[in-house]
Write a structure and sequence with these properties.
Layout lengths: L41 H18 L4 E2 L5 H5 L6 E3 L12 E4 L1 H7 L1 H4 L4
Length: 117
């Protein structure tokens, strides 16, 4: 499992986790699309935005390996702002390649993508 050095481990001052320390001995948690409903808590929305900002700062529009990125946090963005970069895609692999879709990201998180083309 690739560890993304320099990537924030969590949202500062909260328990919202962005990375994991070690591979799950029971098996890899698969990525699934989680629906973001309008009535989500503001803290959850801030965590999504902070995670998206960290992803954009580290990877931009280049493919990246899932590695030690938290499956739960990625799932809130999966198949919208973060899409598979390979076909076939294995959602239960730490080696899976993902990529940020900047067009969708601009709609969902305009403050992060302002001025970036």
């Amino acid at each position: 499992m690739l560890k993304h050095r320099g990537f924030p481990g969590r949202l500062p001052g909260t328990d919202f986790q962005f990375t994991i320390r070690r591979a799950n001995p029971k098996g890899v948690t698969p990525l699934t699309r989680r629906e973001r409903f309008r009535d989500r808590k503001p803290a959850d929305k801030r965590a999504d935005a902070a995670f998206m900002e960290a992803l954009w700062a580290h990877f931009r529009d280049q493919p990246f390996e899932r590695g030690n990125l938290d499956a739960g946090r990625l799932s809130w963005l999966f198949e919208r702002e973060v899409i598979p970069a390979e076909d076939p895609f294995d959602p239960a692999s730490y080696d899976a390649l993902l990529v940020i879709d900047p067009d969708v990201g601009r709609v969902s998180f305009p403050d992060i993508f302002d001025g970036v083309r």
